[in-house]
Amino acid sequence: KNEVEQSPQNLTAQEGEFITINCSYSVGISALHWLQQHPGGGIVSLFMLSSGKKKHGRLIATINIQEKHSSLHITASHPRDSAVYICAEGYGGATNKLIFGTGTLLAVQP
Amino acid sequence: DTAVSQTPKYLVTQMGNDKSIKCEQNLGHDTMYWYKQDSKKFLKIMFSYNNKELIINETVPNRFSPKSPDKAHLNLHINSLELGDSAVYFCASSRTGWNGYTFGSGTRLTVV
After folding, report:
1. Does any CB of chain A come closer than 8 Å to the CB of residue B41?
2. Inter-chain touch A98–B40, beta carbons under 8 Å
3. pLDDT band at A86 (very low <50, low <70, confident <90, very high)
4. Which of A15, A20, B60, B90 yields a CA-CA distance of 20 to 30 A from A57?
5. A1: pLDDT confidence band, cut at 50, 70 and 90?
């Protein structure tokens, strides 16, 4: 069982829909990361959070430390949001390594 | 100015060859990483260096040898390449005391 579980694995939405991607992790962490990867592209860091909620444009990330759960929401989705969204738990400290989830492939159709 | 730059972007080579991938960051970070993304798009850490010192080596075959000549550079040398080494390799950097990450654009290695 992967230390970081994401759901759903695949998601198809119509343009304008509200999208939620969920992430559960199993160990105590320093920070939870949300990353975006377009097909054939690099990895972009969207959010890093250790408590509460963060918002950037149409993207919102929340985390519940007690339940070891985080969600990424996309409001008013657009085809350009189509990408793989990956959550990762950050160990912080000396190593600060990331343990990744398996990713959610999002396709937003016009 | 690219913050974390990797070269080459694409690398196609035959089995048994030796190849290197280079990574440089101009962010002043003191920690650099190599991550491997397999054919199923799953990312996994390989190595981490902090101030030129190896701090993570995650059960990677010893055909893989990272080298960090200074804090701004972390290169990955791979000996005797195998088909299973085909993947996308991502370099990343961060700074001690800050959990954030910056990733390079990746190097797609294809072993034929």
Report:
1. yes
2. no
3. very high
4. B90
5. low
Chain A: residue nearest B94 by CA?
A: A96
The pLDDT tens digits for A38-77 are 987 889 999 999 899 999 999 999 999 999 999 999 999 9
> How far is B21 from chain A, CA to nearest CA, in Å?
16
What's chain B look like in SS3? CCCEEEECCEEEECCCCCEEEEEEECCCCCEEEEEEECCCCCEEEEEEEECCEEEEECCCCCCEEEEEEECCEEEEEECCCCHHHCEEEEEEEEECCEEEEEECCCEEEEEC
Starting at the edge strand that comes first in sequence, how are the strands of the sheet with B64-70 ordered? B4-7, B19-25, B73-78, B64-70
Structure confidence by residue, pLDDT tens digits, B29-82: 999 999 999 988 899 999 999 888 888 888 789 999 999 999 999 999 999 999
Give the number of other CB atoms < 10 A from CB of residue B15.
Answer: 11
Contacts of B40 in chain A (CB under 8 A): 102
Nearest to A97 among B45, B100, B102 (CB): B45
